[in-house]
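thought: user wants a sequence for this fold. calling inverse folding tool.
action: design(structure=
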């Protein structure tokens, strides 16, 4: 299962002040917190890494776009929907979009991208969503397709992970290897230069169909170390950075010429529990959850930049239920562990994995939680790994009994939070038990939206209680 810790304003960034910007109005340099492993935003583990989507969205267009408040707006599609009995979908493709090589974006590109995404041989991690529609037909700028298996979130997914349109003719002419060397999209920026593990320089695309970006050139510098990103800002080498330690954010925000912005986002700090070893004991799971003081973590470690929650639904999500709570109660934790034969003198032992510096205070959060667990009779050994390793181990279902992760769900649907994280057959889940699979399974294709949302609320309540 999973322990939900907090949903936090983890997307803190320090931006430039006017004094810095005047010297290079046409160039924006961003000290970014992760590397870019691949230029194909539709295949492989990097395609489902929420952190690198900002780079992808700079170069590629999605079928559907989103506003900052998570509502949906036109992307390469200007309209979409089902027919009356939901046996078909229809998509309307804009006629004013161009690829970076100057050729026009066509409905054929959209159909090819959807068919490629739905083909299990291409390696799209969300293939099981895209394969729910097929038998495409094109009439002018309108596309129709049969619903092969009803998926209530198909249009939401068109604004989410792997939902990018690629150029059919160009991709087929250069192949996967050629596309990696010279990617072509239809987004607001073109790739000008890419040095793996170092930087990518983007140039404004003048034929972009949407509003023209303010900057002629954008440079993403890959700076995984948080302290190095702070140094980038203080030295003036970069204009913007994200995901820095909170105390550094407060300090830099007070400096002349720098401006700080913090915005709550739906990034959920969570701990995956793998159904192996001691985690198969419900008393242990519940004891660990009740031992965590989320309020203290937010106030002391995150300096107030966070919101404690108790499920994988943030307050803006469609299945958020404020009545589902997991109380902080160390004494109850001790009672639960005692019932399974554990105590502070004879603690339950297991490993917990975490990143260090991927998110502000990620390692320190786990240190604090491990201390809280120790006080009630649980001894956790911390293992540090890179975020890429987390994705690899999770895909293999070989994570440690406990593993910290930052779960992003920009479309706010419960299927892409609780569903994907807790349904055994999901490639993103480490929990495989018949009870939860039986509750979640029928919700994937539930056509009654009210019943579907109520079902996920019931699942969240069951997880919180177990």
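)
observation: tool returned 466 residues.
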């Amino acid at each position: 299962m999973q322990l939900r810790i907090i949903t936090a304003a983890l997307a803190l960034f320090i931006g430039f002040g006017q004094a810095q910007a005047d010297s290079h109005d046409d160039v924006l340099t961003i000290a970014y917190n992760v590397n870019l492993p691949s230029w194909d935003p539709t295949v492989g583990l990097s395609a489902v890494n929420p952190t690198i989507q900002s780079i992808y969205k700079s170069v590629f267009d999605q079928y559907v776009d989103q506003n900052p408040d998570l509502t949906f707006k036109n992307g390469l599609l200007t309209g979409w929907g089902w027919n009356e009995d939901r046996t078909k979908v229809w998509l309307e493709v804009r006629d004013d979009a161009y690829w970076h090589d100057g050729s026009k974006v066509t409905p054929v590109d959209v159909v090819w991208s959807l068919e490629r995404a739905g083909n299990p041989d291409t390696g799209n991690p969300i293939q099981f969503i895209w394969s729910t529609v097929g038998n495409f037909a094109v009439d002018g700028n309108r596309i129709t397709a049969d619903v092969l298996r009803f998926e209530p979130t198909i249009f939401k997914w068109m604004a989410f992970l792997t939902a990018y349109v690629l150029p059919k003719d160009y991709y087929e002419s250069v192949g996967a290897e050629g596309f990696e060397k010279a990617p072509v999209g239809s987004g607001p920026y073109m790739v000008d230069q890419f040095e793996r593990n170092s930087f990518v320089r983007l140039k404004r695309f003048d034929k972009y169909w949407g509003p023209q970006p303010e900057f002629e050139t954008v440079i993403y510098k890959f700076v995984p170390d948080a302290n190095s990103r702070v140094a980038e800002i203080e030295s003036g080498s970069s204009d913007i950075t994200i995901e820095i330690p909170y105390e550094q954010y407060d300090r830099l925000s007070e400096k002349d010429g720098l401006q700080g912005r913090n915005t709550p986002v739906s990034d959920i700090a969570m701990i995956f529990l793998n159904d192996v070893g001691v985690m198969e004991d419900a008393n242990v799971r519940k004891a660990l959850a009740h031992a965590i003081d989320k309020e203290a973590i937010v106030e002391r470690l995150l300096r107030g930049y966070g919101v404690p929650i108790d499920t994988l639904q943030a307050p803006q999500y469609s299945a958020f239920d404020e009545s589902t709570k997991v109380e902080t109660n160390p004494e109850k934790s001790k009672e639960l562990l005692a019932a399974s034969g554990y105590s502070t003198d004879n603690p339950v032992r297991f490993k917990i994995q975490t990143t260090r510096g991927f998110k502000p205070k990620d390692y320190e959060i786990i240190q604090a939680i491990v201390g809280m667990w120790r006080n009630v009779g649980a001894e956790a050994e911390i293992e540090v790994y890179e975020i890429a390793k987390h994705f690899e181990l999770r895909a293999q279902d070989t994570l440690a009994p406990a593993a910290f992760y930052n779960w992003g769900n920009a479309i706010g649907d419960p299927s892409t939070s609780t569903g994907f994280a807790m349904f055994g057959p999901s490639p993103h889940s480490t929990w495989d038990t018949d009870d939860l699979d039986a509750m979640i399974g029928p919700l994937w294709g539930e056509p009654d939206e009210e019943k579907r949302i109520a079902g996920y609320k019931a699942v969240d309540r069951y997880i919180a209680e177990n």
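thought: summarizing for user.
answer: Here is the designed sequence. Residues 4-23 have pLDDT under 50 and may be disordered.
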